[in-house]
Amino acid sequence: MKNVKGFTLIELLVVVFIIGILSAVSLPQYQRAVTKAKIAAMMPMLDAVIQGQQIYKVTWRRYADFDTQVGDSIPLDIKLPLDTNKYVLTCRYLPFNEFMQGLQEAGNTEEYNKWEGKQSAYKTGFCQLKLLVKEDGKNALGPILEYALPGMNSGLDYGGQSNAFSRMCLARKTSSVEQWACKSLTGASDHISQDSTNHWYYRFQ
């Protein structure tokens, strides 16, 4: 009768150790690839939104302002595979007269005086497609694509005149994976700025 030899404990530990090393190396690469693919899939969707906005403006002489997160329907003649459990679509367009009226009603005299008579400098309008990610079993705001509306400035400097960036990728400051994905997609070497939601801005080159 032949003796059947199995693996020794040392051999099993070596195999487990090797598997652990391979997992540690491959998992971050996998996460990066998945995140980049998800953001890339959002790009044609936001392109369609911008085209829909252009058609909307021809009809109504202004861009549409809406937010799917608060239950608004999309007032654009487009069809999007927009799963509200995965995405939030926001378009912001505030004409100069409405902007000034809001400052006046809020009693913000300093900002009102700052912008009075500067209608030609005020051009803010943009759309954002935000990817929701799961954190601790709840939806959290992940990477964001932001495109400025034609002839408008992006939200980087809301109400400003110096940051007419047409396309941006926003990554959470706490996520190195999202930062890598935005850098890879945009070709940017570094971020431009940070907004109130702790996202870094990367400009498409």
> Please, what is the average pLDDT?
80
Helix tally equals 4
Number of beta-strand segments: 6
What is the 3D shape? elongated
Number of domains: 1
What is the H-and-E element order? HEEHHEEEHE
CA radius of gyration: 23 Å
Class of secondary structure makeup: alpha+beta
Biggest sheet architecture: 6 strands, antiparallel
The amount of beta strand, in percent, is: 15-25%
Indicate the low-confidence ranges by residue numbers. Answer: 157-163
Through-space gap between termini:
72 Å
Helix content: 25-40%
Query: Biggest sheet: strands side by side, in what order?
Result: 1-2-3-4-5-6
Explain the layout of strands and helices:
Layout: H1 9-60, E1 66-67, E2 87-93, H2 96-106, H3 109-115, E3 125-135, E4 138-148, E5 167-172, H4 176-186, E6 199-203
Helix pairs in contact: 1-4
Q: What features would you describe in this structure?
A:
- Mean pLDDT is 80; it is low at 157-163.
- The chain is 40% helix and 20% strand.
- Strands 1-2-3-4-5-6 form a six-stranded antiparallel beta sheet, with helices on one face.
- The chain contains four helices and six strands; from the N terminus they run αββααβββαβ.
- It has one domain (9-203).
- A hairpin with a 2-residue loop joins strand 3 and strand 4.
- It has helices at residues 9-60, 96-106, 109-115, 176-186, and strands at residues 66-67, 87-93, 125-135, 138-148, 167-172, 199-203.
- Helix 1 (9-60) crosses helix 4.
- The protein is α+β, with helices and mostly antiparallel strands.
- The N and C termini lie far apart (72 Å).
